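yo

u said u wanted the structure for the complex thing, so here. seqs first:
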Amino acid sequence: MSGIEERLALLEERTRRLEDELEVTRLVLSYGPLADSGGADAVAALWEPGGVYDVDELLMNGRAEIAAMVRSDAHQGWIARGCAHVIGAPHVTVTGDDAVALCYSLMIVKDRSGDGFRVRRATANHWTLRRRPDGWRVVTRVNRVLDGRSESPELLAAGLPVTS
Amino acid sequence: MSGIEERLALLEERTRRLEDELEVTRLVLSYGPLADSGGADAVAALWEPGGVYDVDELLMNGRAEIAAMVRSDAHQGWIARGCAHVIGAPHVTVTGDDAVALCYSLMIVKDRSGDGFRVRRATANHWTLRRRPDGWRVVTRVNRVLDGRSESPELLAAGLPVTS
Amino acid sequence: MSGIEERLALLEERTRRLEDELEVTRLVLSYGPLADSGGADAVAALWEPGGVYDVDELLMNGRAEIAAMVRSDAHQGWIARGCAHVIGAPHVTVTGDDAVALCYSLMIVKDRSGDGFRVRRATANHWTLRRRPDGWRVVTRVNRVLDGRSESPELLAAGLPVTS
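structre next:
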């Protein structure tokens, strides 16, 4: 019987690990649709209460500041003129109750001078997340635009586990 | 033994749930490669026989109309001139035998006036899917271009489960 | 007891299959961050020692040639001027110890004549991978730009399992 107990316990652990990876993936992917539909409180609720969202030009501490960014005239203006915050498929590494997600994001906006769209920003994203009693939440998200500044490649390099 | 029976049954259910999420993800991601290689019948077979594909300018009812769109001169012309229907990583929510997938799609085409590509359309995608005896199939896919019309953000908001 | 043994064995097999699909996905998604941060040896280590990376204009045989591409002035120049190798969410098919992944990749670069970014290349990617004692590795990756050449749609068509 001990063989069965051990196999069950191992399966439960492996299944939990897979569920964690997919839950973190869903959380990261929900940012774009929530931001582009103006769901300020829902965007903020992706973070833990004291979570940090650090973008090149703006540092947001806690949910209230994140929600305020979504409600700002600048952000609402992008929605009104046509905007897609496309979050790329994240590379997720779960370690117990912590996780790191690494992805690109593209801010794609309606081109006012033509009939198509243009890529306004291509950005490196490094997320850290933590398991909480009510599910995974973002602890920090750091975004750096990939315009040649050295911080952005460094941020990409920091998000992947070392493999040999 | 009852403890083992319950743990096995729960693991079977959780594993099925994970398999469903990945199967729905694969189905959604297969649209682009099938459409861009002109596989009209294979594209249509992603939907159930009476499935609906509702794009801004075109409403397709059933597989025959979907296949006809892929075979159309307009679609074949895009393939011939260079085209990528990039389906973004989908956010998938499975509930029993039903699922909702939410993603962005980018229609990226060769730029005839330059040496690169341009983003012709950035679109919100809302998919509903159903489990059938032969696997998951699309029931409805609604696409709305993110050009500032209010329908598109509303479509994004409708595709995510409510979290607190 | 035989019922329990069979159910455990089946769960172990299904769980392994899910882990494989996610491991292959992570491997494919790690290419962009490693390439854009200049990790030449880490990029090369995604392939098995004799692995092949076949891009339109360049055929690389083995890890040394792949690492040399990352170290080249051309590639380092893209990083210095601002570049994102965005690997789209891969469609992964695992069959035992082999896997096929199909995705799009977008090479997005800082626009030197404006303040945004431009899509320099949109490319069909067909990966074959193999399980090795130390994890999954790439056997071949074939990239063809989607500029209207017939090879590119053919590459997309070849990467999906036949469904009815």
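The CA atoms of residues 40 and 86 of chain C lie 17 Å apart. The mean pLDDT of chain C is 95.
cya
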